[in-house]
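Subgroup meeting minutes
Present: P.N., E.W., G.H.
Scribe: E.W.

1. P.N. recapped why we're keeping a running log of single-chain structure predictions: easier to compare across weeks, and new members can see raw inputs and outputs side by side.
2. G.H. added today's entry (168 aa).
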Amino acid sequence: MSESHSHFQIRPRFKVNLSQSPDLIKSQLEEGLNQGDSGIYGTLIEGHATLSLPKEDQHYWSPQLGLSFESSDSGSLLRGLYGPRPEVWTMFVLFYSIIGFAALVISIIGYSNWSLGQSAQILWAVPVLMVVFLTLYLVSYFGQKMGRKQMTQLHTFVEQALGIQIRE
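Output recorded in log:
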């Protein structure tokens, strides 16, 4: 895996120009998936693939790799996006949204009370929400660290199936 993926990114990604056509990329990925010894499963549709590990090897933090490939002047453009399963990603987005909305509402109420000369002690909840936000961020960081080995497996599969080396 390339060095750029060694640091934390919420959803690591890559983009590579290839000389192969999108149809050839799709057939190479299908061939790699059909070999069965890779331990990678996936779904392929025109211009897109989603790769993951077998259910028995997955844990809560297991990543999946979404690939898109489209025609370009030099052949095709391959884009990859690593991320958690959709239900995990949705849960984190929901929690971040709730925290952000609560901070907004509390700030409006607190500053309104303060401007009216009333008690604005509710504003103490904003730093508490910031701590909750930071805690959630750290949980996602450690979760991604737990899925690092599986992310490398997905990355290696794509490199081997397509016969390329991805450097970003």
